[in-house]
Amino acid sequence: MSPQGHLITTVAACAAVYAVSSSLPLTAGVAMGGFLIDLDHYFDYVVFDRQFSLDPFRFIRYYENCECRRVVLFLHSYELMSILALISLLTGSRWLAGYLLGAAMHLTFDIIFNGQHSLRRPVHFYSFFYRRRHGFLASRLLNVRWKEGLGEALPHEI
User: Fold this and answer.
1) Where do the domains of the chain lie?
2) Of the four, 23, 33, 42, 138, which is 20 to 30 A from 93 by CA?
């Protein structure tokens, strides 16, 4: 799903959660999990793909055009969500419960929308261990093929 789509759905979810619960920690958690979870894309962009442009439009085009070489995305993982769910249950943290609610919404939309065109195995993709088993390589995880010698990714139907 696009950043704009995640922003709109997260704002709507935050409004609904706050209307029902009047809980700022729960609502803040939904905002973090629904939208700010995508900060791991920036981490991958800089650390693993060595892209340093601060232009947000360049960053968005980079992902929309499937130019990334690696997709680690440590926040987008069932494994992390499972650990956080356990911590939330043990501590009773409303903020963390909200984060999980927002992140679950975010991943669901990613599976539905990104799965249609860019992910080879949409449900499996959000497992950190699955991505690790494929070396975090976009060429193995995404529907892209690389232009020889140019370092560009092109959408590819499988």
Assistant:
1) 3-155
2) 42
